[in-house]
Design goal:
The protein is about 45% helix and about 15% strand. The chain is α/β, with parallel strands linked by helices. The protein has one domain: Rossmann fold (3-Layer(aba) Sandwich). The longest helix is centred in the middle third of the chain and has 31 residues.
């Protein structure tokens, strides 16, 4: 018996064409889920589609979507339902690193852009996804899963990261509110507070930052992308049905160091 067979279930992953999102998508496809990637970069979408399509039985589509554009979200939702007929799981993963400015140098444009992508984006994605999930529940097919990519910075202090930290703390609040409000429809909501993973974003950072993080993390290494596969499958599966409203650090112990 396969405890984590996701055949027949459909998952949406925003920003799923690279980094953490692509790592999670790999696991979902291997477990048999259909996956809809919503992301901006057409070239990365095509590459992710080619890779994921060869991994497992799950069917994959990649749709152009910028989460700061509600019309684009609505269009991607309609296309996803047109192809798969349903959405059972949503990973609100799309995000940006923030402006990287000290507090005395905060700009209105930098702050607004970070909050638009990292906070308003997941909220608007949830708006459209939950409309579908609630309608299903009212027709006797209750259930759904919302998982947002948050960060350890939402509960820790880091230099030059006030906008990013605030944006991720806000999605932790969104998670708790969604879990409480949507429980009657058997929709769960959780946040994954990721620590240090090597991605395209961290590759552009000062190499000394990675070295410092490796020394501070109790497990003495960055997160492994292969581990994202099982993590995503667990939160997409019925085995996580009794977990909701939680903000779970996935960080090798960084948040307790």
């Amino acid at each position: 018996m396969d405890l984590f067979d996701l055949s027949g279930r459909t998952a949406i992953i925003t920003g799923g064409n690279s980094g953490l999102g692509l790592g999670m998508a790999r696991g979902l496809v291997k477990a048999g889920a259909n996956v809809a990637i919503w992301a901006r970069n057409a070239e990365k979408n095509a590459a992710a589609l080619a890779e994921l399509g060869a991994l497992g039985p799950g069917r994959v589509i990649a749709l152009a979507c910028d989460v700061i554009d509600e019309d684009a979200i609505a269009h991607a939702m309609a296309e996803t339902l047109g192809v798969f007929g349903r959405a059972d799981v949503c990973f609100a993963n799309a995000g940006i690193p923030g402006a990287g400015t000290p507090i005395p140098d905060i700009t209105e444009d930098g702050w607004n852009q970070t909050l638009a992508v990292n906070t308003r984006g997941p909220a608007l994605v949830y708006k459209h996804v939950t409309r579908h999930m609630i309608a299903r529940a009212q027709d006797g097919d209750a259930g759904g899963k919302l998982i947002v990519t948050s960060s350890g910075q939402s509960i820790m202090g880091v230099n030059r990261s006030s906008d990013y930290a605030a944006s991720k703390a806000a999605v932790n609040g969104l998670t708790r509110a969604a879990a409480f409000e949507l429980a009657r429809h058997q929709i769960t909501a959780n946040a994954l507070l990721f620590g240090y993973y090597e991605t395209d974003i961290t590759a552009r950072a000062d190499p000394r930052f990675g070295e410092w993080m490796a020394r501070r993390i109790p497990l003495r290494r960055p997160g492994d992308h292969a581990g994202l596969e099982g993590l995503a499958v667990f939160f997409a599966s019925p085995h996580s049905d009794y977990i909701t409203g939680q903000c779970l650090p996935v960080d090798g112990g960084l948040s307790i160091s």
